[in-house]
Amino acid sequence: MIDAFADAVPAGGAARVLDAGCGTGRMSRYLADRGCRVQGVDLSPGMITMARRANPDLAFAVGSLTDLPYPDHRFDGVLLWYSIIHTPPAGQPRIFAEAARVLRPGGHLLVGFQSGEGIRDVSGAYRRFGHEIQLERHCYRADQVAAQLAAVGLREVRRMVRPARDSERDEHASLLAEAR
Questions:
Q1: Which of 54, 60, 106, 154 could form a disulfide linkage to 40, CB 3.0–4.6 angstroms apart?
Q2: Which helix (H) or strand (E) covers residue 165, if one does?
Q3: What digits encode the pLDDT tens for the residues 135-172?
Q4: Which residue range or ranges hold the Methyltransferase domain (predicted)?
Q5: pLDDT value, residue 11
């Protein structure tokens, strides 16, 4: 789905793509290597520091998915790759509204997430490395996310849902949508 997204935005290095919730910049790097001009944004200053260190040729900024620090219609593509999962259902409409706001007409959005229902406490995965944090992951069904995308004027063009593998507990889903 990442490749389908990269193929959907203009080729030849002209595509401006926002990696919203970029973390350490892993997907930003992948998209840049595919010819996209990538801007990453993440709420965590620590993640942005790591992204800048690993990818000094890319631009990264600290910012919130619910209040993106960019003008309207700035990007040809917006990637929300597993970045909606830490926001409760009540916050989802604002995330998708902001993504749609910064996406140009005809641009594409790709969202990836664990699919299912409920909340998972994922703190234990970090505690074993000595990090005392509280961290929850919210699961959403693909149809729920598709409805949120439609509500902000995005049209779903492709969907993938795959079953859980190995030690995974939940399915994984991704939806590719186009701005009208």
A1: 60
A2: none
A3: 788 999 999 999 999 999 999 999 999 999 998 889 99
A4: 17-107
A5: 60
Q: What was the pLDDT predicted at 123? A: 73
CATH number of the domain where residue 68 is located: 3.40.50.150
Q: Which domain holds residue 60?
A: 2-179
Query: Residues 106, 72: contact at Cβ < 8 Å?
Result: no
How many angstroms separate the Cα of 122 from the Cα of each of 2, 166, 174, 176?
Answer: 25, 17, 21, 26
Cα distance between residue 74 and residue 177, in whole Å: 17
C-alpha to C-alpha distance for 179 and 18, rounded to whole angstroms: 14
Number of structural domains, the chain?
A: 1
β-sheet bridge partners, residue 179: 154
Distance of alpha carbon 17 from its chain centroid, rounded?
Answer: 11
Residue (of 117, 149, 16) closest to 75 by Cα position? 16
